[in-house]
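Late entry, evening session. Most of the bench is empty. Finally got around to the prediction I had been postponing all week. Sequence below, unchanged from the version circulated by S.P.
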Amino acid sequence: MKRQLLYRFFASIPLVGLCAEEAVPVKPNYDVGPKGNPGFEAADIFHVDVDGELADRKALMMRDLLVWYPTTAGVRQTGRSGPLDFDKEILSLWTTRMRPEDVRSNPNTYTGLGKALLAMIHYAKDSGNLRWTSEKNRIVETILQSQESDGYLGNIQRPDPKNDPAGMVWRGWNLHDSSYLCLALVENHRLFGHEPSLEAARRYGDFIMAYWDAAPKQPGQLSPIGITDFFFALQKATGDGKYLDFIAGTPFDGRFIEMESLRDWRQELYPMRSKADADAGGNDDAYATAVTRKVHSYRYFARLIDQLKLYEAQGRKDSGLFAMSRYTLDKMADSDAPGIFISGANTRSEGWVEDQCGKGTVGEGCAVVHMVWWLSKLIEEDGDLSYGDCIERAICNHLEAAQDPNSGQMRYDVCLSGERNFRKGAHCCDGNHKRFWADIERLIYYTFPGGLAVSLYTPSTAKLEVDGIPVVLQQETAYPSGGTVTLAVDPAKAVGFALRLRIPRWTQSHVVAVNGNPVEASPVPGGIEITREWKPGDSVTLDLPMEFRWIAGMEFYAGYAALACGPQVYCLATSGNPGLSGIKNWSGITVDSTSVGLLPPPLRDGVRQPIEAKAHAWSPGRPLTEAPDLDLVFSDFPVADGFETYFRLDNPEAACGDELFEQADGKTPPAPVARGIERNKS
């Protein structure tokens, strides 16, 4: 009821015809700029080497970088579910191109080639691998040769390029696909100095701007996701402000998101509303088209990132560009109805939801990846390491679960309750997962004037600088299966600086020592700071005691609880529990809340082994007065065949609240008000 009243209130505000000076003031005032000291910056990915689980995930993704699986429509149409032929079924679409009349019938209309090429370019630069360098050069040359003389670049033929030069740009996913491809070309120029790549990207950018007036104005007729990323990069590479002006002032999109410019974008973030949504988790993607009111989370989080990029590009003067980010943070942490799941994911059927139902198409990959990148950008702007709590939750659980640890195939989504599947091999999510793992290093370390910061705990080495002095940080840890982190601090010579360490909100205590001696550290947003003169050979040990805890479910899962330890969420998998094969309703199992214990880890044999715990439980309907009749094996959430996450407890009081969802005032935050433009009503 509270959320319905909120929606009616904002729907009643007369925004039509308002000028910026007449816009209704924001209450509370979300137009607040950075909260921390300026200069926080993610460490260059090429100065960080990652090891352990994250390295394994990255290597698996890079191994299958040019592996494409057919879309759902492609499987239905062709009966094929296995990998596609890259040259024949993906790359060739950029040379021979589809006929306009075949766009709907071609199951691979959207290739996602640009996103994969971005990952390949970064990986080739990072690894120096000659195979990938040669392969990315081949793909780049193929794309450059396919560009037409007037700048058009796309995978759809133009029937009348003279009289209707841009007609096909707006068809299907052509603009979206080509924009990411041109972003890759700009990156190829930045990292490898390839001038023809930048020239081709510039020509395409100019082509789009020249014919933008011909673009469809009806919301949802084309997807512009990617053009902002492309134009930000193009402006930085060329120094030409016209690209920045274009994306700052041009209204974009309108399909399940307000059709406003980056400069003026404001909207309410509301859950999907429809009859079908009332029975969430049933028909998979049917809800994506059946809903009448929906916020598309991929578009939404991409736009949050774009506003922060615009803030930076325009000299960090317009604090109003923070309004939507501040509002979204409040919505995510709303203790009544949080918009993210315990796995760190957001969305169901690609739309924002707040009912916590974990059935069906939960956590579209594109949306989760962009949420993580947005939070990382906020660390840079605010210097607040607490955003890393949500980042690690999403990585350790949802994003690792989205990748099959054996085949490497990506899931479009990962539910919390029910059978996981690979039925939708959409190239958009697959491409963003490839980009994510190629750049995983960007989320671990940050630099700031006079100091270094550690946000994620994982085996890794970073070669950074403080005030021009080289400093090597080397992390050793079993995290997230263990809470001890050892950090070797090795400056080229003795130098004083501040070292910040994130202290996760899930921990009840921590102990930090330098060279084996406990030290007092100063509190900073999201963590602690140790300021001293660091010398070659110094080391820091951080102990974060990890204990199993039950996290109380909300909304759909009210009365149930999920098992967690540190940032890791656990579930029951079919492979680990053959004795449950005769039980259909696993959520009807009641667990002995005090019986959880960690199982010894199996020996590594090249295949990922889950972290496992044991517990006693009662089968559905069995009286708690009788002895437990089930011996359960809980696996960490990334296990490939996870089936159920929430259960009843013999003692409901044993469950605690989720630290990610605790908002101080417990009130639903009101949305920022649009800055003087007409709100889209379609």
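Two things to note before I forget:
The CA atoms of residues 258 and 681 lie 9 Å apart.
The radius of gyration is 25 Å.
Will write this up properly tomorrow.
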